[in-house]
Amino acid sequence: MSSSTPHTIPQVAASVNKDADVNNAHETIQDTTGRDATPGTSTLAQEQVIAATPIDRVMWRPLPYEICRVWRMRLWIGYALALIVLGVICGVLWYQHWLLPWGIIPVCVVAVLLLIGAITVPFRVRWRYSFTAYAIDEHNIWMRDGWFIRETQIVPFNRVQHLSTSQGPLLRRQHLREVSVRTAMGVHTIPALQETQANQVVDTVNEKVLRSREEL
Fold it and tell me: What is the pLDDT of residues 101-145, one digit of tens each?
């Protein structure tokens, strides 16, 4: 059961499609700009992104380290449930005499893969944490996340429609909140911030969104 705190603000949206190479890993920058502009002309959102800090000079802010515990627990719970389901299926097949000797091989392969995945969770979480971050400049909210395929999202303030914070059981246990930014192109999230920090980010973004709307 998760709790969510909405923060509704005037309609505004997101921009830019660009490729970047960060930490020698594959990274994509999501395009969150509307496609209704006249070909050959730049929209206000595109002009703001151009005027913003270049990606190689963005002052990235790391997430609280407690988010690693949340990610580990989520993955381990998922692997544990998968192993339980696999065990139940094997028990039913064995009881019905459908699990022939040759059928044990794929079951064992799946079980080994799940165990390997569970064992490597701490390493994968640490690797993901080293890349995941966010930033707020004068024009945009920057968010990057990913483990193997890494993605950077740029959301201009004048495109933001709605802000909200949410907190599930695992986040609540670590006193963290997820911040969601909704635009016309979808929802973009900062995976976790300290509760007071999340409120400060929402207030800051809300203020900048209102200011950008006044400048239109």
Answer: 666 778 888 999 999 999 999 999 999 999 999 999 888 999 998
Identify the band that residue 58 occupies on the pLDDT scale cut at 50, 70 and 90: confident
Residue 42 tokens read as 């730049």
Query: Three-state SS string across the chain, please?
Result: CCEEEEEECCCECCCCCEEEEECCEEEEEECCCCCCCCCCCCCHHHHHHHHCCCHHHCCCEECCCCHHHHHHHHHHHHHHHHHHHHHHHHHHHHHCCCCCHHHHHHHHHHHHHHHHHHHCHHHHHHHHHHHCEEEECCCEEEEEECCCCEEEEEEECCECCEEEEEECHHHHHCCEEEEEEEECCEEEEEEEEEHHHHHHHHHHHHHHHHHHHHCC
Cβ atoms 181, 160 nearer than 8 A? yes
Residue 65 · residue 153 · CB < 8 Å: no
